[in-house]
Amino acid sequence: MSQSPAQKRPHRASQREKGDPLVLPPGTTSAQFKDFIKRAQNICGADNVFVVETEDQLVDGTYKEPNKTHDMHHLYDRSHFVCSATIAPRDVPGVQDIMRLCNELEIPVWTFSIGRNTGYGGAAPRVPGSICLDIGKNMNRILEVNVEGAYAVVEPGVTYFDMHEYLEQHDLRKHVWLDVPDLGGGSIIGNASERGVGYTPYGDHFMMHCGMEVILPNGDLVRTGMGALPDKTAGHKPGVPPHEQPGNRAWHLFNYGFGPYNDGIFTQSSLGIIVKMGIWLMPNPGGYQAYMITFPKDDDVKQVMDIIRPLRLQMVMQNVPTLRSVLMDAAVYGDKASYHDSKEPLTEAELDDIAKKLNIGRWNFYGALYGPEPIRNVMWSVIKEAFSTVPGAKFYFPEDRPEPHSILRTRALTMQGIPTYDELRWIDWLPNGAHLFFSPIAKVSGDDAMLQYKVTKKRSREAGLDILCDFVIGMREMHHIVCIVFDREDPSSKKKAHWLIRTLIADCAEHGWGEYRTHLAVMDQIAETYNFNDNAQLKLNEQIKNALDPKGILAPGKNGIWPRNYPKEEWVMDGKVEPLE
Amino acid sequence: MSQSPAQKRPHRASQREKGDPLVLPPGTTSAQFKDFIKRAQNICGADNVFVVETEDQLVDGTYKEPNKTHDMHHLYDRSHFVCSATIAPRDVPGVQDIMRLCNELEIPVWTFSIGRNTGYGGAAPRVPGSICLDIGKNMNRILEVNVEGAYAVVEPGVTYFDMHEYLEQHDLRKHVWLDVPDLGGGSIIGNASERGVGYTPYGDHFMMHCGMEVILPNGDLVRTGMGALPDKTAGHKPGVPPHEQPGNRAWHLFNYGFGPYNDGIFTQSSLGIIVKMGIWLMPNPGGYQAYMITFPKDDDVKQVMDIIRPLRLQMVMQNVPTLRSVLMDAAVYGDKASYHDSKEPLTEAELDDIAKKLNIGRWNFYGALYGPEPIRNVMWSVIKEAFSTVPGAKFYFPEDRPEPHSILRTRALTMQGIPTYDELRWIDWLPNGAHLFFSPIAKVSGDDAMLQYKVTKKRSREAGLDILCDFVIGMREMHHIVCIVFDREDPSSKKKAHWLIRTLIADCAEHGWGEYRTHLAVMDQIAETYNFNDNAQLKLNEQIKNALDPKGILAPGKNGIWPRNYPKEEWVMDGKVEPLE
Ligand SMILES: Cc1cc2nc3c(=O)[nH]c(=O)nc-3n(C[C@H](O)[C@H](O)[C@H](O)COP(=O)(O)OP(=O)(O)OC[C@H]3O[C@@H](n4cnc5c(N)ncnc54)[C@H](O)[C@@H]3O)c2cc1C
Ligand SMILES: Cc1cc2nc3c(=O)[nH]c(=O)nc-3n(C[C@H](O)[C@H](O)[C@H](O)COP(=O)(O)OP(=O)(O)OC[C@H]3O[C@@H](n4cnc5c(N)ncnc54)[C@H](O)[C@@H]3O)c2cc1C
């Protein structure tokens, strides 16, 4: 084994020299940094290297124009989770060269594809002063859309909107549909790599990916699954550089290949940079109908969830439906001020009023039917009958909801894979709206839903924040997505959000619930809750990390996994949080 | 890092001492072995330790009574792939202790759950003289069947038959169905760990697993996914040993947990021993109908496959259907001698005769419809119309095939998850019937199917063997399962089978096709075909292997992955094979 890497400590503020970034990479001197930047410019071109030198350069931007330097929805200071420089490689060898250079100089790297990972940290790195690789800026080609095999192959910069436009322009939606998350601005690779979700039957994005090309922390290039088998009939030729070799014909058809199936370790991880990925498209089902069902009472969540479970398991509910709390919908119709001038969390009565005013429920369910009409009719009659047992349940099709910003009409697009921006509106519930996602997993059951909702509601009240949440319902579990909206220009609002998420993580762990994905600030705290058998899983992850990335170059600290050369006591942000006054 | 482990070389025959096994573990002396056995007896009880001392003890047995020492369907000598001892731990700590002991003494271990992995090596280890852990013998409890969540949790020794009986006894099939492979004698864990397939909509067994408890090569115990989060509400209590702690309520509902998703690296690998696993059960679909469609001409495979692709993708074909060549079916009806006294591969005319005699096609398709009658009717009318375009296609329901050994009547059980033994009959196509599986993956397409079939047929003819094969059709790819049947008491028959598989691996690699799983003897050859970018994937696997198992204790050589202390030039069995005379 090569010489041990230097121990890395958080960079302490010190005198800055001209040309220095706001925060140097840990353990890197000014001179080393400048050397690095020069060499990075040689690799990627000066245009593709941007050093963060002043606070002024930290402009939050918006979802549509996201920044590439820090967390737009900053929970701490804007400059807390900040990179030293953003670098956009031009191609695969550029990424490899940067990784090799970073290994040589022992500089940490954080990757994003687009940087719209809002609520989870946006473009920001976990370790301040890391280099951010803006991998999607130049590497943004749709490499293939294969109608027969119903898949697409993309580079990191391809967004859901890009893919949708491609399908539209080539008149392919009659053959295949895309699955999209609530918003269409994220990247297909970034989202799947974080195991994000969408709302058609293909909503589990990791499950629906197939075949990756990955750059390891040391710069090596691997193709996973069938991609590891060179395919002459696809045009594989000696002499062509590996990343330009056409892939095996089954690369994006069959995930597992031969031997250990590795793709999972490249998700939510710091073990590789995905530079190409296959994603399955859904065959056009030959018919579609979105629907909404409203439930009048806050407590209905219990009964509703118990109705959902068997229907979802049976695939009578074919897609990933959502059950949304009243404010999740209301916040899309208008901001808090449009309903009320209270600074306090809205009361039950106020929530009932809003529901009434908008003609929605305290809970609102959005699903869709897929297939030819006779099949849809069978499904719909079963669904309608089941939910009719909930007193006051009302049923709608999109034409029944002509009002502006109708959620049903937006979901009717989302659930057939047409991306939109509409859901962005709830972020502005408060002025200078920013948000954090708290996303625990639970069994699809009335008791779990009710209890998880109650815990969240109680703590939100205590924090003085409204609760906006929905349940995203997979086959056997649900992602409960709690959208903690705060005012990013108001320190007390930030403090509330921060207190709330840390408190909820702890509360939920007590109930046996864990989160599926999280924000930079609380990665350590959540990783610590997954501590079965003396942190056996974390230790396993650390062992693999240290083997594949002995210098801890790629995304140190991501999801609580610290490489050997990052002393934990100096880096871990534990669950402690200032009490609310 | 601790002291480097000793280099391991194949054991050369030497004078054997009393009490020595037929083959000592590589690098282990007689005295060390005896010390090991004594200590293993202390851990597991003398009853659970069996040393292979003589050739006489190598009794092939049958599928129903499989041996636990060597490959029942031996391609080389019976004693080639042989273990030194078979040890059956009594419980999880027993497995951990054995792994620690093997680390201490640097003795390699091979694991099986049941040992019915026929066609792929059975119970035998890759490295002769390894210890075989018969993990399913004592650890064979059904830990839970959860109807609401539609899953079961099992230990390694639970077979498909065991689970089926449990469902029957508790009258649970009205709620949930199991997915089963062709035969029901294998273990749920062993099959999923090899990424085996079944034939209901839940046929992808790795996809349908959820949550593992794994013992790492060093003896550490890990729970994956949500299992890593201790759950007090499920009864988790400090003081109880980890493996006895009840699991998180979402352990078997949600696969991914938080951070890297590791389960894939424990499949087809040498990185862990799975001691508990969740498997999803399919909700009873509320209606079922199996069907068979026969096609008269050998060339029909092309047209048929192009009809299947869109229907399967659209889930009009809801399950994993199979398209079987005439002899695959015929061999279940009777052995070769019952049709013909030829020692040569049957000719086209002879195959046509057999098809006619049995009233089956040259190709026979088996699928099923799931759901209430109106839904099944829609699906069936689409399927029937599509296949009616193939001249001479005939359609059958089970009641139309009352003959003994009707494949359709067996498949009608299999496709609803009822295990059987019927398919065993094709192994006896030749006297002393033994078999090897050759299993390449391909796109679901007429061209691929036709070409792959032609290549296989041509080489089978050259080898002087009949071709028995079927296509197992997943959503986007198919597993082409070629059953190479040979006479294990006839050296020339074995030579033919051996020549055939090695030649087919090489031929298929030329066409860009790779195998999904394989026999011990050809693991190295297949691993070598997955050699993209200078074997990047293999190197990645080796890095992880060396990190988690620095002494190369667990399953060295499995699927071509050799730990650092096994010099490859001494161990790899490459693609060379004696020419046929
Ligand atoms: C209103 C609203 C609704 C939302 N709804 C959803 C939803 O329905 N479902 C959902 O999943 N999310 C949702 N999100 C969260 C987020 O917007 C999406 O997940 C988005 O797709 C993230 O996209 P991105 O490509 O910009 O991420 P990026 O910032 O580019 O990537 C996110 C992270 O993934 C990793 N990563 C990115 N690229 C790579 C790569 N090439 N190789 C390795 N790792 C990589 C990095 O760790 C990175 O930090 C929502 C957000 C908002 C504001
Ligand atoms: C006629 C016939 C039809 C068949 N049809 C099918 C079919 O339809 N589908 C199919 O998939 N197979 C099929 N097979 C192959 C085989 O019988 C099955 O795959 C069977 O399920 C293997 O079962 P097992 O549990 O005995 O395997 P084992 O021998 O117990 O295990 C197989 C391998 O898995 C690994 N393993 C086992 N247990 C563990 C563990 N606890 N932890 C880690 N690794 C472990 C080991 O490497 C082991 O060598 C068929 C075989 C025959 C003869």
UniProtKB/TrEMBL annotation, chains A, B:
The keyword Oxidoreductase applies. It comes from the Eukaryota. Keywords: FAD, Flavoprotein, Oxidoreductase. Residues 79-284 form the FAD-binding PCMH-type domain. One of its GO terms (biological process) is lactate catabolic process. The keyword Oxidoreductase applies. Its cofactor is FAD. GO terms for molecular function: D-lactate dehydrogenase (cytochrome) activity; D-lactate dehydrogenase (NAD+) activity; FAD binding. Residues 1-26 are annotated as: Disordered. GO terms for cellular component: mitochondrion. This is Putative D-lactate dehydrogenase. It comes from Bimuria novae-zelandiae CBS 107.79.
